[in-house]
Amino acid sequence: GQSLEQPSEVTAVEGAIVQINCTYQTSGFYGLSWYQQHDGGAPTFLSYNALDGLEETGRFSSFLSRSDSYGYLLLQELQMKDSASYFCAPRRQAGANNLFFGTGTRLTVIP
Amino acid sequence: EAGVAQSPRYKIIEKRQSVAFWCNPISGHATLYWYQQILGQGPKLLIQFQNNGVVDDSQLPKDRFSAERLKGVDSTLKIQPAKLEDSAVYLCASSLGGSGRAFEQFFGPGTRLTVL
């Protein structure tokens, strides 16, 4: 089977740092993607971790620990426009290359 | 570079009617995905094509949903007959596929379906 756990909601202050955790269980795990989705918008790709460790892309960083089946997305210098839903998505099956999305974390940034 | 195109953007139908959605992926993307996203949930993969062949349709309700990708480019997803629980946003996505950046999927704007 497969499962994903993320907090359903997170609230943080503008300018602060927030961490969104993700624990997963899936067969044939190859990596972990993160996507952002604004209300009424389409999901957009943020980052991907194939190996353990931290990947940094501007204000966003993503971490993976394969042995713990755990990852997180770190958002720094939060801006109001970061208010959105964030999905971690394990990449399954090298051949099919598909992603499994959970229910996501709704981040609200407040002034 | 043009993004993933979908039409229509909105559709309202009555239950038991049929409906079709169209998707044109990014040029050169071999892999095309159809997702269903119910309000408050994450995207659920319905079907995945690699060129014009089906790679994964394990979550497609085949008694009412069908999809095709003729010539390995654009794709059509059909629902017949529709049920109330089919009300959702239908997202199309594409990726390079193969050993490329297949983990990075590009999503279209989606079609919001309301079944009354």
Describe the structure.
The complex is a heterodimer of chains A (111) and B (116). Chain A is built from no helices and eleven strands. Chain A has strands spanning 3-5, 9-13, 18-25, 29-37, 44-49, 53-57, 60-65, 70-75, 84-92, 98-99, 105-110. In chain A, the strands form two sheets. In chain A, strands 2, 4, 5, 9, 10 and 11 form a six-stranded mixed β-sheet that branches. In chain A, a hairpin with a 4-residue loop joins strand 7 and strand 8. Chain A is globular, with a radius of gyration of 13 Å. With 116 residues, chain B is an all-beta fold. Helix content of chain B is 0%, strand content 47%. In chain B, strands 2, 4, 5, 6, 9, 10 and 11 form a seven-stranded mixed β-sheet that branches. In chain B, a hairpin with a 6-residue loop joins strand 7 and strand 8. The model of chain B has no long low-confidence stretch (mean pLDDT 93). Chains A and B meet through strand 4, strand 5, strand 9 and strand 10 of A and strand 4, strand 5, strand 9 and strand 10 of B.
Number of DSSP-assigned strands of chain B: 11
Compute the average pLDDT of chain B.
93
What is the global morphology of chain A? Answer: globular
Could you give the distance between the termini of chain B? 37 Å
The stretches of 5 or more residues of chain B where confidence is low (pLDDT under 50) are: none
Fraction of residues in helix of chain A: under 10%
Q: What string gives the helices and strands of chain A in order?
A: EEEEEEEEEEE
User: How many helix segments of chain B?
Assistant: 0
Mean pLDDT of chain A: 93
Give the percentage of residues in beta strands of chain A: over 45%
pLDDT < 50 stretches of chain A: none
Measured on Cα atoms, how large is the radius of gyration of chain B? 13 Å
Instruction: Estimate the strand proportion of chain B.
Output: over 45%
Separate helix tally of chain A: 0
The percentage helix of chain B is under 10%
Listing every helix as H and every strand as E from the N terminus to the C terminus, the arrangement of chain B reads EEEEEEEEEEE
Q: Biggest interface: chains and residue counts?
A: A-B, 24 and 25 residues
Outline of chain B, from the CA principal axes? globular
What gap, in angstroms, lies between the N and C termini of chain A?
A: 41 Å
